[in-house]
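seq as requested:
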Amino acid sequence: MDFIISEKWFDIIGYEKYYQVSILGNIKSKSRLIQTKNFKKKLLRSQPIKTFLDKKGFKWVTLSKKNSKETLKVNLLIKISIKDMLL
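struct tokens:
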């Protein structure tokens, strides 16, 4: 018997407008409208974000917002995001 796990997505705390994390450890950006340098509106579509492994096998991801970058552990993002939804 095969089990199918549906991927449930949660907003990442501090990055609610930009990214989501799934219970399977995947990260994706959220679709949103931005204003270009020419003052035109452009739709940025949702897409998967690349993660990388450290020497111990933990998954990490680099997230950015408002021209600042931060590298975070994916398992902590899941824990914080799910904990916030359960309260």
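The beta strands are 9-11, 19-22, 27-29, 32-35, 41-44, 52-53, 59-65, 68-73.
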